[in-house]
Amino acid sequence: MKYVKQEQKFGCVFACIAMILETDYWSVRNEFPEVRFGKKLGESEGIDIPYNALSYLFHKGYVGHTSYSTILYSQQKREPSEWIKEFAPIHLVSVISISGYSHACVWKDGVIYDPSRLGKYTIKDYREINSITGFWNIE
Questions:
Q1: Three-state secondary structure of the chain
Q2: Does some domain include residue 29?
Q3: How many percent of the chain have pLDDT more than 70?
Q4: In CATH, what number is assigned to the domain containing residue 50?
Q5: Burial letters for 108-132: b for 16+ Cβ neighbours within 10 Å, e otherwise?
Q6: Which candidate, 27, 85, 86, 92, places its Cα nearest to that of 55?
Q7: 81 falls within a domain
Q8: What is the pTM of this model?
Q9: By C-alpha distance, which of 28, 3, 1 is closest to 14?
Q10: Of 6-10, 54-58, 106-110, 116-120, the least confident
Q11: 1 in a structural domain
Q12: Mean pLDDT on 4-23
C-alpha cells in the first residue's frame, strides 16, 4: 500500500480514503469542497467517518462493515489488541493517539498506516480504538 500523508491539519480521513483508493490526497480532498477547516460556526473540522467517508467509498465500488466500537469494549478493561481482529482486506480505524483524534488504514498484515505521522504502527501503539470498519472492493 502506498502511504499518503495528510496535507491539512484535519485531513486524516482524506488521506486514508486516498490510501484505500490508491490515489493522492488532493484527488480525494477536492471531492469535498464544502468541508472547510476552522472554528467558524457551521464549518467542519474534517469529515464524518460514518456518513461522508463510507458513502464516498460506496460510490467508488466498496462495501463496508463496522464491527467494533469502543462503547462495546470500554467497560471490559482490556487492551485493544485483545479484541481487535482484522476481518477484511483493508480497514478504516478511528483511533485516539497522543496527537488527538486520527484515522488510519489497516491492512491484513496488521500494519497501521497513520496519515498524521510517518512509520508503520500496530494496534498496541494507540491508547484507544473508537471504531474499525472493514472494506471490500466489489468492482
A1: CCCCCCCCCCCHHHHHHHHHHCCCHHHHHCCCCCCCCCCCCCCCCCCCHHHHHHHHHHHCCEEEEEEEEHHHHHHHCCCHHHHCCCCCCEEEEEEEECCEEEEEEEECCCCEECCCCCCEECHHHCCEEEEEEEEEECC
A2: yes
A3: 70
A4: 3.90.70
A5: eeeebbbbbeeeebebebbeebbbb
A6: 92
A7: yes
A8: 0.80
A9: 28
A10: 106-110
A11: no
A12: 89
Q: Which domain holds residue 119?
A: 12-137
Domain count, the chain: 1
The tens digit of pLDDT for each residue in 35-94 reads 666 544 444 455 555 467 788 899 999 999 887 665 554 455 555 556 677 889 998 888
d(CA 59, CA 112) in angstroms, rounded, equals: 24
* 2 in a structural domain: no
Rounded Cα–Cα distance for residues 29 and 14 (Å): 6
